[in-house]
Design a protein that fits this description.
This protein has 275 residues and is an alpha+beta fold. Helix content is 48%, strand content 23%. It folds into three domains: 106 residues, Orthogonal Bundle (Helix Hairpins), CATH 1.10.287; 43 residues, Roll (SH3 type barrels); 83 residues, Alpha-Beta Plaits (2-Layer Sandwich), CATH 3.30.70.100. It contains six helices and ten strands. A hairpin with a 5-residue loop joins strand 3 and strand 4. Helix 1 runs antiparallel to helix 2 and helix 5 crosses helix 6. The longest helix has 37 residues.
Length: 275
């Protein structure tokens, strides 16, 4: 066997090895992605598109290796490939960025499904976490699709990271009411209401807020479970009103002070003017 024939045989073998390695690498990457998404309970959206994108990158490298083995000068083709690469890069930049950001969001557990968050100025409940975007359901029923690159790189505000949420109620009573008695009754209402959370991890309190035009205002701060937010709010306000009625505590109406003064006209007659 001549040296030239041996060189050709070696080049053929290396070319086959290059294609085989490219095939194996492509399969391993796709298998790893599918295994990861299956572990976290998600599925890859547009799997064929993703597979083609990865195949383009892997086999492109393999073909470049084969051309190098056969000593084919790639310089004349690089300009055209460079333009094509720029076009493809721009076309896939956004989807690929969102996909990779989605992986980071899921791995780091930056947000959870069911959380109340603010993302990029949108506030709502995380409805579904996908590989390329996050679906946020607003409180007025809208479904907002947010690209995962914004979820990953942006500021995410979590309003209630625990199962508990604090509620504040402002309660105004008449000036004739005994302040110490009012505070004691408000604390009693908190203690007697079963929907109010009472444990060492939270602190319920009653504090003075202000002297207002019609009465003295207190702020009642208490904790409840997120699932019973509105029920707790309604239940405690009803209980407070009932306890106040039983103890003669008056919740005042708004008072408008009207004064009348006498104004004399040029002839000395009196006319009434209201202020």
């Amino acid at each position: 066997m001549s040296a030239a024939t041996l060189d050709i045989l070696i080049e053929i073998i290396l070319s086959v090895v290059s294609i085989t390695v490219s095939y194996i690498v492509h399969r391993l990457i796709m298998r790893s992605i599918n295994k990861f998404t299956s572990t976290i309970g998600k599925e890859v959206k547009a799997p064929k598109t993703l597979s083609l994108l990865i195949a383009f990158l892997v086999y492109g490298f393999g073909i470049a290796t084969i051309l190098s083995i056969w000593n084919i000068n790639l310089t004349p083709y690089l300009a055209g490939l460079g333009i094509s690469g720029v076009v493809l890069g721009l076309a896939f930049q956004e989807p690929l960025t969102n996909f990779l950001s989605g992986i980071l969001v899921l791995v780091t557990r930056k947000v959870f499904e069911g959380e109340v968050v603010d993302i990029d100025g949108q506030t709502g409940i995380v409805d579904v976490l996908k590989m390329n975007n996050t679906l946020l359901r607003t409180f007025d029923g809208k479904l907002v699709l947010i690209p995962n690159r914004k979820v990953w790189s942006g500021t995410v505000t979590k309003f209630w990271p625990t199962n508990f949420r604090r509620i504040e109620i402002n309660v105004t009573v008449d000036y004739k009411s005994d302040m110490e008695k009012v505070i004691a009754l408000l604390k009693r209402a908190i203690e007697e209401e079963p929907l109010v959370v009472k444990n060492d991890s939270v602190s319920n309190s009653v504090v003075f807020k202000s002297f207002d035009s019609s009465g003295i205002t207190y702020t009642v701060m208490f904790w409840t479970e997120r699932a019973t937010y509105f029920d707790s709010l309604n239940a405690l306000t009803i209980r407070i009103k009932k306890i106040f009625d039983e103890n003669g505590i008056i919740i005042p109406y708004s008072v408008i002070d009207v004064r009348i003064k006498n104004i004399y006209d040029a002839e000395g007659n009196v006319s009434n003017e209201k202020n």
